[in-house]
Known about the structure:
The chain has about 50 residues and is mostly helical. It has one domain. It contains two helices and no strands. Helix 1 runs antiparallel to helix 2. The chain is globular.
Amino acid sequence: xxxxxxxxxxxxxxxxxxxxxxxxxxxxxxxxxxxxxxxxxxxxxxxxxxxx
Length: 52
């Protein structure tokens, strides 16, 4: 599943749950930042590591 597809499904689910529209807008903005950085990659190819 591509990052954009995952966001679409997540957004739809959260709308049903009653999330505030501004919250979803900000989540969408964060998703757009991820897509700019990584590209619209498959979710299973994304590996995030935290440096300690």
